[in-house]
């Protein structure tokens, strides 16, 4: 199914919805119209910290990923001349709040939380992982365990379905839109929602039969299988979506422009060969960082949000 078809409003109406729902918080400006916060024009607002704080999207065991990201953070330190520290985050909300409060400088926000991070935290995404041939993305999957009796999305009715968090694209927003638009199933009415907090938790929950069914990102599942956290025979996949963009990487809008440029250089000059990054992410196909723009690459995600009536309210 093409999720671009989920937005039933006319093109003009959808543009109005997006302007209203996806406007930046009042503390940011977008003079060039690229949909992300501008670097402040007042140099006194530029931040040049002695140490850079980096966070990866929330995972079940942050300590594992602190080790995975270590060679990249060392490379970033060499390029920028700054100490770079890994910051383990427990939720998408905590990650967004950390950048909004100035405690997080460089980060990877998952697909669904990217628009909220852009609107509310001044996040400026510029990179994404991709395969060697330049292709990228992941698919949303509906998974269950063998013997559950669930073989199609229609079978979710009357069951308990695990989502990750309300900011997640593949863990909540896309599956909710799909189930409502294509199968007439509404969360809380036709099935009971449960929120696990992360894709790892949802996958483990299904594998251990704590959840009957879950919506997950298959890139996470592939990495968990490669690490023998789960085995393929513990789950059954009964639905796979079209391809979505994956985690977007970027910086806080008010970092010194020269520092932002050096951070970008660190992403695009990093050699994955023989590193823990290669070992971990090759299991889901990634082999390099490629440049992206939020305006283009996240358009389908904004359309899903618009179809669901999502608005980004910044507290």
From TrEMBL:
Does the keyword field hold Repressor?
Answer: no
Return the GO cellular component terms, semicolon-separated: ATP-binding cassette (ABC) transporter complex
In the record, which residues are listed under signal peptide? Answer: 1-23
Please provide the Gene Ontology terms (biological process) for this protein.
transmembrane transport
Which keywords annotate this record?
Signal
Q: Which SUPFAM superfamilies match?
A: Periplasmic binding protein-like II (SSF53850)
Tell me the domain of life.
Bacteria
Which residues are in coiled coils?
none
**Is Signal set as a keyword in this record?**
yes
Pfam families under this entry? Phosphonate-bd (PF12974)
**Which family does the similarity line name?**
Belongs to the phosphate/phosphite/phosphonate binding protein family.
Name assigned to this protein? Phosphonate transport system substrate-binding protein
Its taxonomic path starts at: Bacteria, Pseudomonadati, Pseudomonadota, Alphaproteobacteria, Rhodobacterales
């Amino acid at each position: 199914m093409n999720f671009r078809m989920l937005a039933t409003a006319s093109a003009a109406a959808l543009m109005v919805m997006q302007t209203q729902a996806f406007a930046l918080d009042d503390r940011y400006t977008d003079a060039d119209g690229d949909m992300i916060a501008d670097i402040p024009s007042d140099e006194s607002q530029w931040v040049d910290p002695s140490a850079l704080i980096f966070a990866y999207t929330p995972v079940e065991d942050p300590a594992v990923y602190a080790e995975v990201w270590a060679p990249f953070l060392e490379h970033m330190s060499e390029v920028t001349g700054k100490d770079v520290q890994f910051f383990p985050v427990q939720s998408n909300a905590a990650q967004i709040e950390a950048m909004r409060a100035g405690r997080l400088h460089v980060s990877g926000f998952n697909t669904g939380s990217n628009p909220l991070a852009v609107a509310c935290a001044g996040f400026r995404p510029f990179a994404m992982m991709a395969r060697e041939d330049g292709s990228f993305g992941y698919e949303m999957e509906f998974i269950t365990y063998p013997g559950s009796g669930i073989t199609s999305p229609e079978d979710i009715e009357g069951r308990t379905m695990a989502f990750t968090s309300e900011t997640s694209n593949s863990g909540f927003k896309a599956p909710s839109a799909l189930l409502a638009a294509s199968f007439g199933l509404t969360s809380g009415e036709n099935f009971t929602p449960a929120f696990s907090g992360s894709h790892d938790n949802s996958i483990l929950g299904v594998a251990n039969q704590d959840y009957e069914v879950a919506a997950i990102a298959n890139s996470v599942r592939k990495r968990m299988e490669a690490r023998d956290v789960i085995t393929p025979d513990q789950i059954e996949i009964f639905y796979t979506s079209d391809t979505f963009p994956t985690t977007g990487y970027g910086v806080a809008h008010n970092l010194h422009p020269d520092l932002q440029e050096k951070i970008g250089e660190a992403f695009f000059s990093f050699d994955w060969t023989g590193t823990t990054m290669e070992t971990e992410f090759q299991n889901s196909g990634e082999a390099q960082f490629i440049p992206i723009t939020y305006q283009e690459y996240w358009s389908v995600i904004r359309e899903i949000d618009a179809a669901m009536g999502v608005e980004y309210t910044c507290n």
